[in-house]
Design a protein that fits this description.
The chain is mainly beta and 69 residues long. Helix content is 6%, strand content 43%.
Length: 69
């Protein structure tokens, strides 16, 4: 499901489009399979807490995947 990703402080940091996660400038950062986040190389690096919502919030441990700005 497409939507926005917010870090643990509520800042919009990324966009989900289909099975991919993009930064706010449109660069593909990660692949998304279910709630699992994978590097483009295929390495599992984290997960989303709510895969059904169009507004997804990260926990602090996953914030590092999406630097602000």
């Amino acid at each position: 499901m497409d939507g926005k990703i917010f870090n643990s402080r509520g800042v919009h940091v990324a966009i989900v489009l289909g099975p991919a996660i993009f930064d706010l400038k449109g660069k593909k950062l990660y692949d998304l399979k279910g709630v699992n986040i994978y590097k483009l190389s295929g390495e599992l690096v984290g997960h989303l807490t709510d895969a059904q919502s169009t507004k997804r919030h990260l926990d602090k441990s996953t914030d590092r995947l999406f630097p602000e700005g």
